[in-house]
Design a protein that fits this description.
Layout: H1 6-21, H2 26-40, E1 45-51, E2 57-63, E3 74-75, H3 80-86, E4 92-94, E5 116-124, E6 127-136, H4 144-162, H5 164-170, E7 179-182, E8 184-187, E9 190-197, H6 212-233, H7 244-256, H8 260-269, H9 275-292, H10 296-319, E10 332-336, H11 341-346, E11 352-357, H12 365-373, E12 377-379, H13 384-387, E13 393-397, E14 402-405, H14 409-431, E15 437-438, E16 444-451, H15 454-462, E17 467-472, H16 486-500, E18 504-508, H17 536-541, H18 543-556, E19 561-566, H19 572-591, E20 598-605, H20 608-612, H21 614-618, E21 623-626, H22 628-636, H23 654-670, E22 674-676, H24 684-693, E23 697-700, H25 705-714, H26 717-727, H27 736-746
Parallel strand pairs: 9-10, 10-11, 11-12, 16-17, 16-23, 17-18, 18-19, 19-20, 20-21, 21-22
Antiparallel strand pairs: 1-2, 1-6, 2-3, 4-5, 5-6, 7-14, 8-12, 9-13, 13-14, 15-16
Helix pairs in contact: 1-2, 1-4, 6-8, 6-10, 7-12, 8-9, 9-10, 15-16, 16-18, 18-19, 24-25, 24-26, 24-27
């Protein structure tokens, strides 16, 4: 094994570098590299496996195994000890390999006699592009220096494998079939284009530090240059207005000035790497930590570090005359593990149509900035990078949280027609007057908008919404470790009210829990968090937190009407408890000189238990809204975010319609105004059914306001009522087709996507 500490590793790195730099075919150079490594590590076998287009790990070069096994031996994702090493974040050592449950026998390799296995993943971009394997005939305990040595050489080989020449050599494999990637909508919209990677290979030409002192000096120059470039970039004139996106960009600027991550880059340089290779290693570490953490706050910070480290790599490579060649193709759908806000601003927005990221949440930094730019984005798409190749045809349907890869011609044609229809409708909406809406037979329909961020309120006003039917108060505060202060809350609620311009705005109290738990409230991990400690349950267990929020709402509404809505109540008793806390908060605010002109109390009907206690609850509140997202997943006992269940049950099904009709009738009996604010309200076909059931107020995403107003204006509520009452008794799994037929026959404009 290499001796002499860092000096020994540097000698081995130089030898590998020299082996892959000679004038020879790519296969011959990789073969020479594994010969060098085997000799330096005194190993009987050294093999290099590299990932192909279809995700399989192919034996690309070997010393010690049969040469004719090269590219004949292929292990699918997760298969064998190689698959085990590929899924790890550090070298994996295994003794007595044939007895290991993951061992996959490949007779063509001739590896039968080897006892000990040491495999190091080639990590680049947070994912393994290959595995470097060391094997010995006899049992061997690899010490810390051995493991560090193979990890360092694996880092170098990861850069080598990313070079276009070697990537082309390895890429031989089947073109991927059509596929669907499911994720979460971060920013709405529909786009059709081609896949592009956010981080194209930067051909790092210098990998081994010849002079550590000079590399540290290069690092200092690169950091100073990066910080100046960021100052210029983040002053983008299109994003100078105040709002969450501005706060995020300012925080990103501060992160660039944090020296802690720079010290980690310097430490890697001292192990023998050049500055750019060291920065890449820190970037990879950030991506690995991002995959592991459960904290939304920490994921956002690690995403920022990923962006900063990648920016530093590109700057250092450019100093040596190397340009990454990261121009986007026309009509680009960008795929990335994670994306920082600054990097998004740096991309050519004339070519960029949408984004797919493996990380991300609706409150993540990139999501906030993307919504400000009007770019469709989906996130939380596990395995996106390994499923796609640059240039693949992509349909990004962010409205429904999906990306279709390499779609069949007829599928693409259908989406292209839908996109043309959508653009035509948008043009028609732009020319249509805003204001109150009535059905074809004169029934007034109120169209409001849902909001979670200040920019959503601005969009709602711009789209002509008659008010904010649901303001999700928690979204603005998710990207932080602790709960907001009263002062911070008052400022947010005042600004939201100002942006609403006198329109009504229903503030829902914090709907924390599930996938929206801030660090300050994180407790023991729950097996099913959607059914656990969340929303009003947290608020009633921590009444001072609820009282603080209600006090802030009262102060922000001084002299004006206040609407407060409680989420996820399961029984009338919980609503009564919440009203008691509200009463105390109003008294405290009044004592401090702040009193709303009027107060209306509402409840979100999101649990089946509240459906059946509706007659009691609805007589005790001033308004109610049906949160169909949660209500339907609880009614069907089907996780709305589960891959297998997300499309299994349709909101337009007889049991769903029957349950909703019961709530509508209960509200009518209690003379309590009722709205629907879940995703169902923004579905044009579902909106027809809801109007038929008697719903006269819908609250939808700002982008859907004009579409739903258009539907409401063209439907006859009497005909819709006859339709829905007939369909409730159907035994069909879904009645969506029947509603569509009704819409077409009646000349009601509905988007083909629904």
């Amino acid at each position: 094994m290499p001796t002499g500490g860092n000096q020994g590793w540097r000698l081995m790195l130089r030898a590998v570098r020299d082996a892959v730099a000679v004038e020879a075919p790519a296969g011959a150079r990789l073969s020479q590299a594994v010969h060098v490594i085997a000799g330096a590590l005194e190993a009987e076998v050294c093999s290099l496996y590299l990932r192909q287009r279809d995700g399989a790990m192919a034996l690309a070069a070997t010393y010690g195994l049969r040469p004719d096994a090269v590219f004949q031996t292929r292990l699918m994702a997760g298969e064998g000890l190689v698959g085990l090493a590929a899924s790890a974040t550090a070298p994996v050592q295994i003794h007595d390999v044939q007895k290991h449950p993951a061992f996959a026998y490949r007779p063509e390799t001739g590896e039968d006699p080897y006892s000990t296995f040491l495999g190091a993943p080639l990590l680049r971009g947070g994912a393994a592009s290959g595995v470097l394997v060391i094997q010995h005939l006899h049992d061997r305990d690899y010490v810390e220096d051995d493991i560090e040595a193979i990890a360092i050489v694996a880092s170098l080989l990861a850069e080598v494998a990313a070079d276009p020449e070697f990537a082309a050599f390895v890429a031989a494999g089947p073109d991927g079939p059509a596929a669907r990637l499911a994720g979460q909508r971060l920013s709405p919209g529909l786009a059709i284009g081609v896949a592009a990677f956010r981080d194209p290979p930067v051909p790092i030409q210098r990998m081994v530090a010849e002079d550590v002192g000079e590399e540290i000096a290069r690092l200092a120059r690169g950091v100073a240059r990066m910080r100046q470039d960021l100052d210029d970039l983040l002053d983008d004139p299109s994003l100078t207005s105040a709002g969450e996106h501005r706060d995020i960009l300012d925080a990103f600027r501060l992160a660039a000035s944090d020296d802690a991550w720079i010290r980690r880059v310097r430490s890697a340089i001292e192990s023998g790497m050049t500055a750019e290779v060291a920065a890449r290693r820190v970037q990879t570490e950030a991506r690995i930590r991002m995959r592991r953490t459960q904290s939304a706050y920490l994921r956002d910070r690690l995403a920022d570090l990923d962006d900063l480290a990648g920016r530093l790599v590109r700057g250092l490579a450019a100093e040596s005359g190397v340009r990454p060649g990261n121009d986007l193709p026309e009509n680009a759908i960008l795929f990335a593990h994670a994306l920082g806000p600054a990097e998004l601003l740096e991309l050519d927005r004339a070519k960029l149509l949408g984004i797919v990221i493996e990380e991300g949440s609706p409150s993540s930094h990139v999501a906030v900035v993307a919504r400000a730019l009007g770019l469709p984005v989906i996130g939380g798409v596990a395995g996106a990078l390994s499923a796609v190749q640059p240039g693949d045809a992509v349909i990004l349907d962010a409205d429904h949280g999906q990306a279709l890869l390499r779609p069949a011609a007829q599928v693409q044609a259908g989406f292209e027609a839908a996109l043309v229809s959508r653009l035509a409708r948008k043009a028609r909406f732009a020319a249509a007057p805003s204001g109150p809406t009535s059905t074809r037979n004169g029934e007034p329909i109120i169209i409001k908008a849902n909001a979670g961020l200040l920019m959503d309120v601005e969009s709602a006003v711009a789209e002509g919404a008659e008010g904010i039917g649901l303001f999700r108060t928690e979204l603005s505060f998710l990207g932080r470790p602790g709960l907001p202060s009263r002062t911070e809350q008052i400022a947010l609620y005042k600004e939201a009210r100002a942006l609403a311009g006198g329109r009504s705005i229903a503030f829902r109290t914090f709907d924390h829990g599930g996938d929206k738990t801030p660090a300050a409230l994180a407790g023991a991990r729950e097996a099913n968090p959607a059914l656990g400690w969340r929303a009003l349950r947290i608020a009633l267990d921590l009444p001072e937190t609820l009282r603080s929020q209600l006090y802030a709402l009262a102060v922000a509404a001084a002299g004006e009407p206040l609407e407060v809505m409680f989420p996820m109540a399961a029984e009338a008793a919980e609503v009564a408890q919440a009203r008691d806390v509200l009463r105390g908060a109003l008294e405290e605010a009044a004592a401090d000189g702040f009193s709303p002109r009027s107060v209306r109390v509402g409840v979100a009907i999101e649990t089946p238990s509240l459906v059946w206690q509706g007659a009691t609850v609805l007589r005790r509140v001033d308004f109610a809204t049906i949160g169909t997202n949660d209500l339907l997943q609880f009614a069907f006992a089907a996780d709305r975010d589960g891959v297998r269940m997300v499309e299994r049950y349709d909101s337009l099904s007889p049991p769903a319609l029957a349950m909703l009709r019961h709530v509508v009738r209960s509200a009518a009996s209690a003379d309590t105004p009722l709205s629907v604010c879940g995703e169902m309200a923004a579905d044009p076909l579902a909106a027809i059914a809801l109007i038929g059931l008697g719903v006269r107020q819908l609250s939808v995403a700002p982008s859907a306001v004009k579409a739903i107003r258009d539907v409401a204006a063209n439907v006859d509520a009497r005909d819709a009522a006859r339709l829905t009452n007939d369909l409730i008794d159907s035994e069909d799994h879904s009645v969506r087709g029947q509603v569509r037929d009704f819409a077409i026959a009646a000349g009601i404009p509905v988007d083909d996507q629904y």
